Amino acid sequence: MPEVLTVLEPATEAVLEKVPSAGTDEVDEAVARARAALPAWRALAPGARAAQLRALADRVEENLEELALLEARNAGKPLASARSEMGMVVDTFRYYAGMPERLMGDTIPVAGGQAFTVREPLGVVGLIVPWNFPLTIAAWKLGPALAAGNTVVLKPAELTPLTALRFEQLVLEAGIAPGVVNVVAGHGSVAGVRLVEHPDVAKIAFTGSTAVGREIAARAAQTIKRVTLELGGKSANIIFADADLEKAAAAAPWAVFDNAGQDCCARSRLLVEASVADRFLSLLQPHVESFRVGDPLDPGSMMGPLISAKQRERVASFVGDGAPVAFQGSAPIGPGFWFPPTVLCPVDPQARAVREEIFGPVVAVIPFRDEEEAVRLANDTIYGLSGSIWTRDGARALRVARAVETGVLSINSNSSVRVSTPFGGFKQSGYGRELGPHATDAYTETKTIYYATT
Ligand code: NAD
After folding, report:
1. Phi and psi at residue 13, in whole multiples of 5°?
2. Which residues are identified as catalytic?
């Protein structure tokens, strides 16, 4: 009997679909197809490769509603969020369709001839993605990888393979040759490991947990594979006393409960200046209590369930362990992996809820005395992915933004990710940057060519 992945709908716990689980043989076959497709894909004229990426964006856009519904049901996210994520997938391919004609090098003055550099594709690239933003995070990697002339093998997370499998069909419908994009839906410990070990894979672009990222980097070292890692986070939302507290309190739930907190950019530490902490919490409470948790397909739902029973058990383990509940929203009872939006206060600075990534709708409130302490607390973590600063003092906002050790920061906003700006982490949140104009650098090698003229 071939092994299958049983794909659940987290809002109902019902089986959504069963798909064959790719093992090492299937990964080897996918890599062989990608290798066979590489010469023709990299030889395509830049304008022709750009046109194919635009056609792919069009195909995704034409099927946006179907993909959004599939993602909403499989990942348990509100349909409106899934629609906007699929919109970002379209935008990502349109943005990177501009890149094949902009992969530029340098000319360098040297003696006796002419030296210049060109950007070469790496070859076959392995893309390994998590379950929280399944197709969106895949697109962040697919866009620059394909634009630069690589062929790819994409491994979606075992819990959420459905949009990636549908996307593989859309690639062919867009007129892109078979073998350029290959999807292997299988377990990380089997299909993921094989992709990382495969000698014909030149690079692994990974998004997922810091623990698995560490393992991938170690394994990839055996074949000196290029690796980029987008890993976990423990970001701070820093509220100064002079901020527009009403606005900050209305935004704070979205900073951590969006996608049920299953977001590497979740601001799961809420740092509040002590002089306004009580007032801020009283402004925050009604927003948390009215944060509507329910059926992802109900347009009124602001948050869906967690991805799995295991994830719910893990999230629950942080609550009460040196971190009592100050107030909570509500969540449906019955089938579905529900968890209510939860605010923890007061917290022990050594509590797991303060130190570890929770990846659920739970935030720890930590008061601070002054700017210096706010920065020290914000940086007191192994992670450095995202964060927010709320203040009306522009100079302070910029001072703190420079001092916080994190890859992305927003001032008076929750924003973390857009197609045109670089995204990635400091410290154990990973290395490399996705999105923005330079993402193609991570999917190319620089080659120097010297032409003797004497
Ligand atoms: P995970 O690390 O468990 O799995 C991610 C992917 O890696 C999955 O496809 C999985 O099958 C695969 N995998 C697992 N073990 C593997 C192995 N030994 N070798 C190769 N592949 C393997 O992560 P998850 O639970 O799916 O996702 C949640 C994590 O992802 C969180 O830590 C979150 O912060 C992180 N994340 C980071 C970003 C970012 O951009 N920094 C974005 C989203 C999620």
Report:
1. 70, 10
2. 230, 264
Both tokens of 300, joined, read 């009124």
Task: Please tell me if the CB atom of residue 385 comes closer than 6 angstroms to any atom of ligand 1.
Answer: yes
Q: Is the CB of 265 under 6 A from ligand 1?
A: no
Measured between alpha carbons, how far is 447 from 101 in angstroms, rounded to an integer?
Answer: 17
Distance from residue 370's CA to the centre of ligand 1 (Å):
36
Dihedral sign from CA coordinates of 64, 65, 68, 74: negative
CB of 416 shorter than 6 A to ligand 1: no
CA dihedral 63, 64, 66, 69 (to 10 degrees): 170
Structure-block tokens of residue 350: 């050594």
Q: Kindly provide the residue ranges of all beta strands, DSSP E only, lying in 249-341, ordered along the sequence.
A: 269-273, 325-328
Q: What residue's CA is closest to ligand 1, atom 13?
A: 188
**Predicted model pTM:** 0.98
- At 174, list the tokens: 């867009």
**In a mutational test of the pocket of ligand 1, which residue from 74, 92, 128, 197 has the highest number of ligand atoms less than 8 Å from its CB?**
128
Question: Beta 444-452 vs 113-121: how paired, if at all?
Answer: antiparallel
Instruction: Compute the distance between CA of residue 369 and CA of residue 21 in angstroms, rounded to an integer.
Output: 53
What are the tokens at 305? 């369930």
Other CB atoms within 10 A of residue 287 CB = 18
The predicted pLDDT at position 281 comes to 98
Report the chain's mean pLDDT, rounded to a whole number: 97
- Pick the residue whose CA is nearest to atom 10 on ligand 1: 188
What digits encode the pLDDT tens for the residues 27-53? 999 999 999 999 999 999 999 999 999
208 alpha carbon – ligand 1 mean position (Å)? 2
Query: Which tokens go with 406?
Result: 């994190």
